[in-house]
From TrEMBL:
Transmembrane feature ranges: none
Enzyme class name: lyase
Source organism, top-level taxon: Bacteria
Name assigned to this protein: D-arabinonate dehydratase
Species annotation: Paenibacillus eucommiae
PANTHER family according to UniProt: ENOLASE SUPERFAMILY, MANDELATE RACEMASE (PTHR13794), MITOCHONDRIAL ENOLASE SUPERFAMILY MEMBER 1 (PTHR13794:SF58)
Keyword presence, Magnesium: yes
Cofactor section: Mg(2+)
Annotated EC: 4.2.1.5
GO molecular-function term, one example from the UniProt record: arabinonate dehydratase activity
Length: 366
């Protein structure tokens, strides 16, 4: 079970049509991959967003030497070693993405050696979890009629609820968009709104939520950038809408502050950024000790295991392959899919993913 090789590369997938996430324009998807191999021939794969960064380079330059010759099963010791060795280069962001990808690959291997899928190895709470959908992205052809049909389709397909992007247009336009989504999905299913950090003050967020109130948002996600704790605190103190944050935050210490100060009602932490599966578990346990439920941010290929392992999870977030927004499905023979409102956790050991090696080679950038 000794590590003999660590490889890292990125995969760049062009999007057929650009989209907007609040102020961000996205015309491609840029993923970082880590492959860890052992002396007896097993291979674990970790991944996450590269975001035009240098995540693969960070793995090779700063982490690889700490891993070679080490025991795969010693994930806690290896995590501590990686975190301490890179603390002067950045305790969040790029370096934590690199640590996260490595840690996910190590847990993939751990599950393979145990002969168990990760969700069973970690806790085995439920083999099926509710499936929610993220949509309503800003696109040139997405008028209110298009949005209404999109969310009606989500209802008909059986999703347990849906999210819509806001914050990338005027408030008046966003109100029309949220109204169309609510009309499409119906009154009985939860509809969430996601600002993707577009706002800068509590007053802005409070005004927006007052305007959205007739459409009964189930939660509001990431109204501000995570560094803007002043605005988040002011908003949380005065809103009745549950606040979901965490997809852009890293490390247990930041979440200790968020949870302890009552600044989060739904945890959205992402194993590909928070510090891998090892750190995701620590954040989840902190949340559960405060009765804060979790709803992991996208990347269902890893989060299906985590959502299925522990109690008080909302479920898993999916983005349909047909939307062309992520492209990750092009890399897998068995992407996570919804059926009758649920996603079923894999039965294969580890992450249980079957990669399309030819697709990885086609779009890989070494």
């Amino acid at each position: 079970m000794i590590i003999t090789d660590v490889q890292a590369f990125k995969v760049v997938l062009p999007l057929a049509q650009p989209l907007h996430l609040g102020p961000l324009k996205i015309d491609k998807r840029d993923y970082a991959f880590v492959r860890i191999r052992t002396a007896d021939g097993k291979q674990g794969t970790g991944f996450g967003f590269n975001r035009d960064g240098l995540v693969p380079e960070a793995v090779v330059r700063h982490l690889k030497s700490l891993l070679l010759g080490e025991e795969v099963l010693h994930t806690e010791r290896l995590w501590e070693s990686m975190y301490r060795a890179t603390r002067f280069h950045g305790r969040r962001g790029l370096l934590m993405r690199a640590i996260s990808a490595v840690d996910i690959a190590l847990w993939d291997l751990k599950g393979q050696y145990a002969g168990l899928p990760l969700w069973q190895l970690l806790g085995g709470y439920a083999a099926e979890v509710p499936a929610y959908v993220a949509g309503g992205y800003y696109r040139a052809d997405a008028d209110t009629d298009t949005l209404r049909r999109e969310y009606a389709d989500y209802r008909e397909q059986g999703y347990r609820g849906a999210k819509i992007m806001v914050g990338g247009a005027t408030l008046a336009e966003d109100v029309r968009r949220v109204a169309a989504a609510r009309e499409g999905i119906g009154e009985e299913l939860p509809l969430m709104v996601d600002f993707n950090g577009a706002l800068s003050s509590a007053k802005q967020a409070l005004a927006a939520m007052e305007a959205f109130a007739p459409y009964q948002p189930a939660f509001v996600e990431e109204p501000f950038l995570m560094d803007n704790r002043v605005a988040l605190r002011g908003f949380c103190d005065r809103t009745n809408v549950p606040v979901a944050v965490g997809e852009d935050e890293s490390g247990r210490w930041a979440f200790r502050e968020l949870i302890g100060d009552g600044l989060v009602d739904v945890l959205r932490h992402d194993a590909t950024l928070v510090g891998g599966i090892s750190e995701w578990i620590k954040v989840t346990m902190t949340g559960l000790s405060h009765e804060v439920p979790f709803y992991p941010h996208w990347f269902p290929e890893v989060h299906i295991h985590l959502a299925a392992a522990f109690p008080q999870g909302w479920g898993v977030e999916l983005i349909p392959a047909s939307s062309g927004i992520m492209g990750f499905d092009k890399l897998l023979d068995n992407p996570v899919e919804m059926e009758a409102g649920v996603a079923r956790a894999p039965e294969e050991p580890g992450l249980g993913l079957r990669w399309k090696e030819e697709a990885l080679e086609k779009w890989a950038v070494i």
